[in-house]
TrEMBL record:
Keyword Phosphoprotein in record: no
PANTHER family named among the record's database cross-references: CYTOKINESIS PROTEIN 3
Signal peptide: 1-19
Organism from which the protein derives: Rufibacter immobilis
Keywords in alphabetical order: Signal
SUPFAM superfamilies: Cysteine proteinases
Protein name: Transglutaminase-like domain-containing protein
Gene3D superfamilies per UniProt: 3.10.620.30
Domain Transglutaminase-like stretches: 95-157
One Gene Ontology CC term in the entry: cytoplasm
Any Pfam family matching the protein: Transglut_core
Length: 390
């Protein structure tokens, strides 16, 4: 049964104008700008170069950020016709090949390079309030752990700004290694976890308050949640994000759209899990049937090729476990997670039950067989054959 293709939600953004000057002390490191062009065709080649020339996480993340903002331009033309969905690896390859991207492309490349240089990082999706408007716009940026401390990075805003429909390249290091307390003034993650704050700001506070007046009261042990997140499977991460988004008293439309998409993605996970469980149950059932058929062939030959009692019993008990395994898997499966499996699941339930009944019947035969004197055992085969015909 084919697996469903899992696609991600695409989040475009027009850059906010940034007028700040670049402090001299934040000038990009030489290694970020002097990398041979042959080593920048792919993220793997670039990461290999960085790993061989830089040792610390600080230097690596610095090189990644400033290489990205120096070499990738904001794709203004694509913004107006941006697709709603994308495939991650394809977007990364496209960004590296064209040297153009929207915010999602910047963030995906940043994340990929961090991952390949052994820096723990996460792509964050959320929304911002562009200057001069109260209408939120979706955006993507990143978090990365450097020397045990989490920081936030926005390579899109760090690359420049859009003015009169034209991208103006202007490196802005203010968006490199931003503290969570500073980032929340302009960037609101959909998942409150990625505010990285012990007192997270609500969506409503972000939309209605001046950044300097945000005074949340809720205490959130985000560090503990991050530890659990790091070891969790992708489905569990998605379930947690949905729960945290739904915990907000007021969910604005921009968040509701992402929440609905997250629930659709969760449904895809559940459908795929149902398919996997069903296929595994089918495999276990087939092994049980193969073993049962082997026993029947042995029995039809009156066990002439298996003289020892232990060997004969093993022919049936050794394969009973597969029917039990199939039954246990089917009990774990929730067919409503994938309604196309309803009839198949019901049918397999019945076949497994029949298989277990047949195993039980053959086990009873063996009890009688081994309690009968060897000289008279051959008569049991004929008696059972006659009984089965009646």
């Amino acid at each position: 049964m084919p697996r469903l293709l899992f696609l991600f939600f695409f989040l475009p953004l027009v850059l906010q104008a940034q007028a700040q000057s670049v402090p001299a002390k934040a000038t990009p490191v030489v290694s970020a700008l002097a990398i041979p062009s042959a080593q920048t065709k792919t993220t793997q080649a670039l990461a290999t170069y960085l790993n061989s020339h830089l040792e610390t996480e600080e230097d690596k993340v610095h090189a990644i950020f400033f290489w990205l903002v120096s070499n990738i331009a904001y794709d203004v033309k694509t913004f107006t016709n941006a697709p709603l969905y994308y495939e991650r690896e394809a977007l990364i390859r496209q960004t590296m090949a064209t040297r153009k991207a929207l915010c999602q492309g910047y963030a995906e490349v940043f994340l990929d390079l961090c991952t390949k240089t052994d820096i723990q990082a996460h792509l964050i999706t959320g929304f911002i309030l562009p200057k001069g408007t109260a209408k939120p716009m979706t955006h993507a940026w990143c978090a990365a752990q450097v020397n045990g401390q989490w920081y936030l990075f926005d390579p899109t805003w760090g690359a420049g700004f859009v003015e009169n429909g034209v991208f103006v390249k202007k490196l802005n290091p203010r968006h490199f290694k931003v503290s969570p307390a500073e980032m929340i003034k302009t960037h609101m993650p959909f998942d409150p976890l990625w505010q990285l704050l012990e007192q997270p700001v609500s969506y409503q506070q972000f939309l209605s308050s001046s950044p300097t007046t945000l005074k949340p009261k809720t205490v959130f042990a985000y560090k503990d949640t991050l530890k659990a997140y790091a070891s969790a499977a992708e489905k569990a991460r998605l379930v947690g994000a949905i729960r945290r988004m739904e915990s907000q008293k007021v969910i604005p439309p921009v968040v509701l759209e992402q929440l609905n998409q997250s629930k659709k993605n969760l449904a895809v996970f559940r459908k795929n899990e149902a398919v996997d469980l069903f296929n595994t149950a089918v495999s276990a059932y087939n092994k049980g049937i193969d073993g049962l058929n082997g026993f029947i062939r042995l029995k039809n030959n009156q066990f002439k090729t298996a003289k020892r009692e232990q060997d004969i019993r093993q022919q049936i008990t050794g394969h009973k476990k597969y029917f039990s395994e199939a039954r246990e898997l089917l009990q774990r499966l929730h067919p409503l997670d994938n309604t196309s499996l309803l009839l198949s699941v019901q049918s397999l339930h019945q076949k497994v039950a029949e298989g277990l009944q047949e195993i039980e019947k053959q086990e009873k035969f063996l009890e009688v067989y081994f309690s009968t004197a060897p000289a008279r055992r051959h008569t049991l085969f004929y008696r059972q054959a006659i009984a089965e015909r009646q």
